[in-house]
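pinging the channel bc i need a second pair of eyes. not urgent but kinda urgent?? the chain im working w is below, pasted from the shared doc
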Amino acid sequence: MHNASKGDVWLVNLPEGVGHEQKGTRPAVVIVHVKQNFMAIVIPLTGELDKETFTFTHCIQATSENGLSEESVAMVFQLRSLDASRFIEKKGKLSKEDMSKLDAIMKDMLKL
């Protein structure tokens, strides 16, 4: 994970969550990679398309560039930090259009 950058799609292992927190092995989008701390902030993805009705989400089509195997929903409201050891495999990179939409959602959600 030492070469992760913003917009990369990685397969990650999210720790056991509580309630509706995302958990398990799933794709996630890297937002910030803090190399000094061996950490990254990610947006988890889900293949459950009904989650797109939630606030602060964005639907991403599967492409050869992003490496997704199915249409997925980016759950921006579940933004989280992960240790580098939780990163399994780089799958691809989001398009500039999808990354711009995620940036706009984060800006709105975080009131920046």
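so Strands lie at 8-14, 24-34, 39-46, 57-60, 72-75, 80-83, 87-93. and The CA atoms of residues 7 and 99 lie 6 Å apart. — does that match what u expected or am i reading it wrong
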